[in-house]
Amino acid sequence: MRIGILTGGGDVPGLNACIRSVTLSADDLGWQVTGFRRGWEGVMAIDPNDPASVAAHSSPLDREAVRGIDRMGGTILHTSRTDPRTHKAGDQTGHVLEVLEKLGIDAMITLGGDGTLRFSAHLSDQGVPVVSVPKTMDNDVYGTDYCIGFSTAVSRSVEAINALRTTVESHERIGVVELFGRRSGETALLAGFLAQVDRTVIAEIPADLDVLLPLLAEDKASNPAGYAMCVISEGARIVGEDNGEDVERSKSALDRREVGVGQRLGRVISDRLGSGAVIQELAYLMRAGEPDAMDRMVGFAFGGLAVQLVQQGSAGRMVALKDGNYCHVPIDTLLKGQKSVDVTGLYDPERYRARLLRVEGMPMFLY
What is the 8-class DSSP label of residue 327? Predict the structure, then answer.
């Protein structure tokens, strides 16, 4: 038995733990593991009839090759955001199938976010045994409560927010921390809640500056230390911008797209409130460095479960966590919905704050 494994999309802490788990679990069964470099891009780049090409874009994984990698962030296989169906040369699904067949790959285990796993589901439809593993620090893959990388991203964010307080307080300003999260504001919501910031703007709810700015001014005025903190998702929108009523009328639409929403909010705070703003885009630091204990644990468990599913002949599945339990769902589950913050139960859109209307019976991460 030979398993292929790859990582796609953005890197997150915990990927290497999963790669190690897959490799060791397969080795225990006497199976071979082939790691493809740079996600689906690496598979597409292979000429299966050219040994040099195969060696350049893949490598055998054994116990020695994965020794100690679980302590490292990122992915030893490297990554890309490539979908073979949208390649500039046309749909490359046929080439991917040829590569896997000629290299003797009996099953694929794919680690990725929405894009990588969508092609995994497509490949499964073509008859390839595939088990997918969800990873993304946004935690927005539909069908699972948890994705590898989420816990570390939240932990990194909370640490950075609290560290930034010293500067914001020293200068008596309003701190604006922009966190990744294009479609889902879950990372911002939990990071803001755990760091106990004053206001959190999530991707699901547009920011009405006529409401948000007075709240921040009140927060700053009521704080004996004379400062306030706000967290905002990178995918958040500001009311009026979509209609061309830009909060910075001197900026063109192109400028607005190039300047992050945190920067735009910070500028308006300075202009309208007359209060200086400390603006921090945490960006890639959220996904940098070694995984925390949660992401190591989930990475190990997801990898072991993926191999067990292949062993059982239960391909065409995505490993998942539901209500705190490890499980698996059909591999195309992520195509059937979009995961986002439960605004009704977990967020107060009028106060721009997290709220917990219910806790009993909820999974640990509240989703």
Answer: E
Q: Is the distance from CB of 339 to CB of 141 less than 8 angstroms?
A: yes
- DSSP H stretches of helix in 203-334: 209-222, 253-258, 261-273, 293-312
Report, as residue numbers or ranges, the catalytic residues: 138
Helix, strand, or coil here: 7?
A: strand
The residue behind tokens 């919905």 is 337
For residue 184 the two structure tokens come to 């889902």
As a whole number of angstroms, the distance between CA 281 and CA 286 comes to: 10
Q: What is the pLDDT along the chain (367 residues), one digit of tens a residue?
A: 999 999 999 999 999 999 999 999 999 999 999 999 999 999 999 999 999 999 999 999 999 999 999 999 999 999 999 999 998 889 999 999 999 999 999 999 999 999 899 999 999 999 999 999 999 999 999 999 999 999 999 999 999 999 999 999 999 999 999 999 988 999 999 999 999 999 999 999 999 999 999 999 999 999 999 999 999 999 999 998 864 444 443 344 445 457 899 999 999 999 999 989 999 999 999 999 999 999 999 999 999 999 999 999 999 999 999 988 999 999 999 999 999 898 988 899 999 999 887 778 776 766 5
C-alpha–C-alpha distance, residues 53 and 76, integer Å: 19
Q: Which structure tokens are listed for 253?
A: 């639409």
Using CA atoms, how far residue 16 sits from 67, 73, 204, 220, 271, in Å, is 10, 7, 31, 43, 45
1, two tokens: 């038995």
